[in-house]
Amino acid sequence: MSNAGAVRSLVGAAAVGLVLTACDRAPADPLAVEDAINLSATNRTNTAQSVMIVLYGASDFVIEEEQTWSYAFSGQPGAVAAFDTYFTVTTSGGPNASQIATAKHNAFKAPNRCNLWNGNALQTVTSTFGGRSVTATPKSPSTHAAKTGWNVEVTGGGPVEVSLDYGSYIASQNAVDKATSNGNQPWKRKYSFGLDEARIVGLTVELLDAANYVVAPYSGEAGVSGYYAGEDFEYNGNAGSSGPNGILANGLVSGILNGTVGGNDGKKDDFAGNDGEGAVKAHLNSMTWSLGEGEYTLSVRGTVRGVAGAMDALFNGTKQVTIFGGC
């Protein structure tokens, strides 16, 4: 046999041996496969994020208004001029012109003064002058809108300014949880509260009325006025979250970072590098609206660290009216 043939035979034999060895191998141990899967699970790393939005200034308000009312028919000339609009007149015994004018004025006095104020039906009034009389009979319809014949002078009651105050802010939390630690990263839970312009996207601040129409601001525009680091406050992820909720934490920022306040699952931060780091607050621009009475919703929306953050503040404007004069 030639040398080339010998080589080919050896190669073929090796190939056959390899095939036979593979075919003869025992099936994989199911428990070993399960252990491998469990090992992968124990080496997992989970992350979660939450958003906090705090709004100041948008709260219930009261509009003060004063109304001073005067009666248009308190004097005889006004009553006589308006008489034929409201009454007809009948006489008995031949009263003179002065007596008829007095009777017409009397028709607008009590009780009809208050009937006009309250919107009640006018009543017939008879005035007597010795053996003479003048009767004022209401025309149909005898009922008129409340405060007919009354004039008002109003002070106050105009729109009031309601603001989203400068102290309003956005904050966020990032949580990293590892099942195991290693030499390079000897920790299993780490929190951070960093925030910057790149991590807030699509920020909107809108004021909606009861019909969900947007009320244009009197001054200011949506945006962040500044980022302030090293803040310590009670953190509450009240505006949205993503990832496993169990690893997120609420409480004093310093306590979360120093490992004295744990996550929702009780596990605490054991990363020494963030102790005393504090959190970043993104302060919102101040905005002002000129509002009348009604129901309003201040709505803040934006994507923070990839989380859809949302916060609505509902408040009401009511009017308090003080009345002077009237019946």
Could you walk me through the main structural features you see in this protein, from its secondary elements to its overall organization?
With 327 residues, the protein is of the alpha+beta class. 21% of the residues lie in helices and 40% in strands. Strands 1, 8, 9, 12, 14 and 16 form a 6-stranded antiparallel sheet that branches. Strand 10 (200-209) and strand 11 form a beta hairpin.
Name some characteristics of this structure.
327 residues, alpha+beta, six-stranded antiparallel β-sheet, 6 helices, 19 strands, 40% strand, disordered N terminus
Q: Find the structural class using helix and strand composition.
A: alpha+beta
Largest sheet: 6 strands, antiparallel
Q: Which sequence of SSEs, written as H and E, runs from N to C? A: HHEEHEHHEEEEEEEEEEEEHEEEE
Find the count of extended strands (DSSP E, 2+ residues).
19
Envelope shape: rod-shaped
Total count of helical runs of at least 4 residues? 6
Distance between the termini: 135 Å
Oligomer: single chain
Q: List low-confidence stretches.
A: 1-41
Rounded to the nearest angstrom, the radius of gyration is 42 Å
Mean pLDDT: 88
Proportion of strand residues? 35-45%
The proportion of residues forming helix, as a percent range, comes to 10-25%
